[in-house]
Amino acid sequence: MALTGVFYSLMVLAFLAFFVSRFLTLKTVKGDIRRLHSRPVYYGLNSLFLTVFPAVILLIFWSFAQAILIDGKVKQQIPENFITEDAPLNLIMSEVDRLSEGLKQLVDQGTLSAAKIKNEDSELFGIEDKLESAGVFLSSSISPEVLSASRTKFAMEAFGSSIRNWLAILVSVLGFLWSLKNSTAEFRARNHVERITLFLLGTAATLAIFTSLGIVLSMIFEALRFFGMHPWTDFFFGSTWAPSFSAGSELSILPLLWGTLYISFVALLVSVPIGLYSAIYLSEYASKPIRAIAKPLLEILAGIPTIVYGLFALTTFGPLLRYFFGDGGFLGVEWMSDSRSVITAGVVMGMMLIPFVSSLSDDIINAVPQTLRDGSYGLGATQSETVRKVILPAALPGIIGAILLAASRAIGETMIVVLGAGAVAKFAGNPLEALTTITTRIVSQLTGDLEFDSPETLVAFALGLTLFTITLGLNVLALYIVRKYREQYE
Amino acid sequence: MTETSHTNSLFNVSSKTKNRNAAERRFRIYGILAISIGLLMLLVLASTIILRGTSAFQQTFITLDVDLLESKLDKKGNRNVDDIKKVSTFGYSPILLNAMKKVLEKHEISTSLKKKALGGIISKSAPSQIRDFVLEDVNRIGQTVEFKFLVNGWIDGYIKGRYSRESVANSKFASAEQFDLIDQLLEVGVVEKKFNFDFIFGADASDQRPEAAGIGVAMVGSFYLMLVVLVLSLPLGVAASIYLEEFAKQNIFTDIIEVTISNLAAVPSIVFGILGLAVFINYMHLPQSTPIVGGLVLTLMTLPTIIISTRASLKSVPPSIRDAALGLGASKMQTVFHHVLPLAAPGILTGTIIGMAQALGESAPLLLIGMIGYVATNMPTTISEGLLSPNSAMPAQIYEWAKRADPAFIERAWGGIIILLIFLLTMNTMAVILRRRFERRW
Prior knowledge:
The structure holds two protein chains of two kinds.
Chain A: H1 3-28, H2 40-77, H3 89-109, H4 114-118, H5 127-133, H6 144-180, H7 189-229, H8 232-237, E1 241-242, E2 250-251, H9 254-285, H10 288-303, H11 306-325, H12 342-367, H13 370-378, H14 383-412, H15 415-420, H16 438-446, H17 455-489
Antiparallel strand pairs in A: 1-2
Helix pairs in contact in A: 1-2, 1-6, 2-6, 2-7, 3-6, 7-17, 9-12, 9-14, 10-12, 11-12, 12-14, 13-14, 14-17, 16-17
Chain B: H1 3-7, H2 15-53, E1 58-67, H3 70-73, H4 81-86, H5 89-106, H6 115-119, H7 126-136, E2 144-150, H8 153-159, H9 176-188, E3 191-195, H10 197-201, H11 216-247, H12 252-264, H13 269-283, H14 291-316, H15 319-327, H16 332-361, H17 364-368, H18 383-388, H19 394-403, H20 407-438
Antiparallel strand pairs in B: 1-2, 1-3
């Protein structure tokens, strides 16, 4: 029985359980709902939950356990002298995985019988051609050891899965029968249903933690593998970024970090003055209708996908800059050799960040109590003096928080720099030259053909972890500052 | 009455006050300037998109009467499909050239172009267009059929004003003679510029044929991504928010959950892509480049947005409603599901739509799980195929086009952006309307 079959059977059983137990309960009180402890729907739901959940939990845990167990068994079966340096165990195992998946496909298509694969005495002739015609491509010719291992894996998986599926249905039926016992008027069905629901809600909330844990652990794990292959001193303190797929890569984060910070700095240089002055004008000077129009319009800038900004940098803003500063350009200088540069990416990213700075600062300026303004006006200060000498100092921590949030966005931004910043990793000061960033390098190391055991690929995880740490640190700091400030006037 | 008392009158503005007032005016102008610069940037961006993108929706077509010659396509003459299939697209080129020559004769146009340059006017997708037409029904061989073919991207670029005779002087892809010929054909109406539905509904094409590339299949990929995101993140997000907002006691555990969720919202999107690659593809062996993996990654990204907005709308339901329900004997759970949740629904929906719109425009994580490149040529036919077969998504397709060297692809990238923005605009307008119509203020 296939998994989809189990799925449909569970659906039918759940449907049955709901109506049968609802019906039975109503029958015990002869349709007089008032004598039931709970409303009839709860008896149905209780039965439904008991029918479905134990079976689903069994399916999930069995699948995980089965995968781990079979993996261990198959690993034992591969003869030790077969494992060499050129073909380490994990490579062989991935080959076995692919081959057993291929066998499964062949069985699904009906070109090969499952019994023939399981019978160890029968030879599988022409298996390679069959696999190829089924669209399964193997990297090398199939060795007998790999084939026999994958046949074992296939057989064990088929056996385990069928037991699992039948067991799940059995558990479901048992749960159904067990729940019928509770079809009595005295049974506190609502309390049971609510307890299960609460548990489900709690599980959903804990998933958020598992996600973050997953992010951090997967990156730490892969980054550690990277540091096992590549000296960490070179990664953190080296000075060159030069990945080469023949050994001897120099993989240092420092030049990338320089590019990232430089471009982010340019972006903030554009977005902070514009965003801050807009926020001041909108909250202190602008009339209501102007505010109602200008604020949402500015916020559109934050809603535009970053790929649009990237394309704008690459095909419009970059060439425009080059027209002014490039070879044979309008100004007659040769400062720019490529339309991709620090300024190209930085200014366009600054455009995107304007609403981040302006909206947050606007909120914060609005949170400054009116009494402070009134006091200042009462002493004879003009509006601009009030803003500069009273409101801004009062709002400063919050504004710094807003800028930090914008900075964290700038550091983690990907598409604009991938398209607009270039690929040169070095410590250059000329803003009209191309530089590269951490995110750009992650993209370039992780696209295309991947080998999960070369330092050139794994370095992306170390880069990602560093990026994650930096942005997380900035965020925590910013939120802390903003929160602390808000409390001040509440 | 002395001079000094006169100058000190309040009616006379002192120089210091003048300076202060000037500073006030300057400050105000800075503010106006800042807003104008911001709005100007928006204007420049919008006009760039419209100016550079709209031309992608039009394409130059050439109308030719093609003789499906038996001598070329079915040499044995027995209409055997397998034999006809053996004729590759290469074998169809001479037929095309004949049709081209015929149309030139008909309109008495003479040209000095050689065979290859003459055939080069038509898109490289034309032979396979005829071949598909023939293989659909082999009895069509021997007939003369009117076809509308795409014109090569370079020629199309000339008609749209991207190239001029001077700019192709040293090009090996197009020549001034071809442009002369096209001008003549345009005059007699054989060549015309029309709205190109294939751009909206078609599949991506290889590097050589920018004129045939479309965004339709990537649009379907995006649709399946959104389907996964909606199905997973809405129930999960709402359930998590209900727990946190209505049931959880304030303790270290819930504090940790809260801090994690607010920090998840600020994690750069590319980090989610790395997670997807490491967990879903490397450990769980889910198929690469598929909408299901992309959807899972985007779900993780959207979840915090949905949780934050759901909690805000649950919070905005006044406690009096909860008290009233509890007072009438409803259980806590009944209060939440029968009263609080329905009242918070518009806010939750608004937040969901906004989160989905963000996910729809996201491209960085999709690059890492391989949803780029020339991946899908056909529309998926079933839901499981849509979820499990490799595909691209709209923003990733736009990135792919932006990377290609031919300017014709840049034009398509801008065109794709127009379509993407139309989707985003619709979703955001829906969110605004929902909020305006159904949001209650207590």
